[in-house]
Amino acid sequence: MLPQPPSGLLPCEVSARALLESAIDHCSRQHGIQYRSVLGQLKSGNRELHSTLRYGLAKGLSRHVAQLGCAFHGVYVYGSALAHEATPCSDIDMIFVVNRTRDEVARLLLGLDLALTTSYRRLLGLRSHPVSLLDVRVVDAAEEVERGRSGAPLCGMFTRPVCLWTSTSDTANRRPRGDGHPSCSSVSVRG
Amino acid sequence: MAIQDTTRVAQHQVSETEINPYEMMLQQIDLVRKYADLLPEGMWSILRRPERALEVSIPVTLDNGEIEVFTGYRVQHSSARGPCKGGIRFHPAVTLDEVKALAGWMTWKCAVVNIPYGGSKGGVSCDPSRLSRSEIERLTRRYTAMIYPLIGTRRDIPAPDVNTNAQIMNWIVDTAGWLSGESVPGIVTGKSLEMGGALGRREATGRGVVYITLGVLQRLGIDVAEASVAVQGFGNVGAIAAKHLADTGARVVGISDISGAYHCPNGFSIDRVLSHVQESPGHLLAGLEHPGSEEISSDELLALDVDILIPAALEAQITARNASDVRAKVIVEGANGPTTPEADLILGENGATVVPDILANAGGVVCSYFEWVQNIQCFPWEEEETNQRLGRILLRALGEVWDLAEKRDVSLRLAALILGIERVASAIQLRGVFP
């Protein structure tokens, strides 16, 4: 970190390194292969592993925002992270449901993206791509309710979003959901 | 391999990543872009890049006779609003990208308080704690000679920053004077008084924090005489802020520094605390004996039920871990970056008003501007005049940031950035693109 960084140059608290380690560990468990092998296959562009890695990263991010008080209401992932078709340059499509779409949320999500993108590129030896690892959509609680009323789930283009975490009333539900890497059909979608 | 083994290997494989500060600066521009008035695409391209970046090699003869070559930088981000202004830092972690990012930050900071400066920054990658005074002097003088084509009273005016001080500024003035054959006191600010420094410069950042705090209290309808204050950090900024807030009638009930934190519900006598600090070894609060006060933890200080919390110590003090414990209505960032992005979100959600560092601690750069004006005019001001003008400039800036925050429905932090960046963009548009 810079000495005496002004607020605009102060990074987020989250350790992108820890999130990546956790996601690689997730890949290792899901596919029953060792760390070095996971890394090698990620570098060679194994799509299934890249999808699993992205799902693991999304889970890690949902754990992080779940700790930030009442600003976030839910986290969803959709797209290539679920469809076993991610490439090394694919981003992670996520929906963050927030209490109110405030600029502090945008600042935090931009910071998380920069930290993750930087670490990810370094891990795989990529120079300039992906430009951004997170493709984030922020939805406020009112919009979530409105969409629920109209019967429309929070929708992805090709895959139905999977809810990773939601802040329902009891604390048990505050934990991120699902330990495995779900297929689209096996996970219920919360609209 | 067992899962535990895999995890252990993973911890060694993924190297720690430093986020590039320049990329962070670009990200700030991207954030502002979402909320700012519509500007032409080319304008954003101009704002994203520094006007000039100079890298210099600085050979220095060490005391043992050997020669070491250091790397230094001077970056001018923008001169659209006036001569560039920005400090010089001596630190092992100095890189070109760091200096580029900090130069951009200075551009926005000068624009927020509407002083006629652009932004710049300089630095030398070195560890000053391993250099003797004479080695630092030779390093400073050679660095000055190397960046001399860029700096000047009407071009680019350095100032002290991390690990640099008034003495180093004095050496820069002297070196530049010999190189130009003229007296050039206005080529740097933050000099010693005898060299053309400004009365009130040492206290300016702390005083600025006080002006901003009083302005916010007025806008929130809180009577200062009824207000309680906690100050984290009792150095040049925190102690001055505590002293002047107490003088205006506020009750300073919490103070801390690296040696400890103290709580006095009835309010500290700051003069008594200052006497203790002046006499104590290391000039610290440790061992403070004050009627009605008790020692508390630094976390408890941040969680005190006060109207105003002034973090004036280090960066990243209010974090996701402790932000929800903060009960202060107003947080005035006397230090640089005391609130992490996660904490900022939590504080905002809990209804706290956070006055960002770019505005709250701008008293220093405003007083630097006054020093420069006095040097140009060859007419030193009384300290009272400096203080009055400082208050006027900062309160005007606070009002503009506050109004913009309400108008655009954004935080004060983003409003300050929007104000700064839009002012710079406006100046660039008015100038046009040369040729």
Explain what you see.
The complex is a heterodimer of chains A (191) and B (435). Chain A is of the alpha+beta class and 191 residues long. Chain A is built from 6 helices and 4 strands, in the order αααβαβαβαβ. A 4-stranded mixed sheet of chain A has the order 3-2-1-4. In chain A, helix 1 (16-31) crosses helix 3 (47-66) and helix 1 (16-31) packs across helix 5 (103-124). Chain B contains 15 helices and 12 strands. Classes of the chains: A alpha+beta (191), B alpha/beta (435). Chains A and B meet through helix 1, helix 2 and helix 5 of A and helix 1, helix 2, helix 4, helix 11 and helix 15 of B.
SSE ordering of chain A: HHHEHEHEHE
Largest interface, chains and sizes: A-B, 47 and 65 residues
Strand content of chain A: 5-15%
Shape of chain A: globular
Task: State the helicity of chain A in percent bands.
Answer: 40-55%
**By helix and strand content of chain B, what is the structural category?**
alpha/beta
Spatial sequence of strands, sheet with the most strands of chain A: 3-2-1-4
Strand runs of chain B, count: 12
Number of helices of chain A: 6
What are the secondary-structure elements of chain B, in order, as H or E? HHHEEEHEHEHHEHEEHEHEEHEHHHH
Count of DSSP helices of chain B?
Answer: 15
* Uncertain runs of chain B: 1-15
Q: What is the makeup of the main sheet of chain A?
A: 4 strands, mixed
Structural class of chain A: alpha+beta
Which whole number gives the mean pLDDT of chain B? Answer: 95
Number of strands of chain A: 4
Q: SSE layout and pairings?
A:
The complex is a heterodimer of chains A (191) and B (435).
Chain A: H1 16-31, H2 35-43, H3 47-66, E1 72-78, H4 80-83, E2 92-98, H5 103-124, E3 134-140, H6 141-149, E4 162-166
Parallel strand pairs in A: 2-3
Antiparallel strand pairs in A: 1-2, 1-4
Chain B: H1 3-13, H2 21-35, H3 41-48, E1 52-61, E2 67-78, E3 84-90, H4 96-112, E4 118-125, H5 133-147, E5 156-160, H6 166-180, H7 204-220, E6 228-232, H8 238-247, E7 251-257, E8 260-263, H9 270-279, E9 294-296, H10 298-302, E10 308-311, E11 330-332, H11 341-349, E12 353-355, H12 357-360, H13 363-377, H14 383-408, H15 412-431
Parallel strand pairs in B: 3-4, 3-5, 6-7, 6-10, 10-11, 11-12
Antiparallel strand pairs in B: 1-2, 2-4, 7-8, 8-9
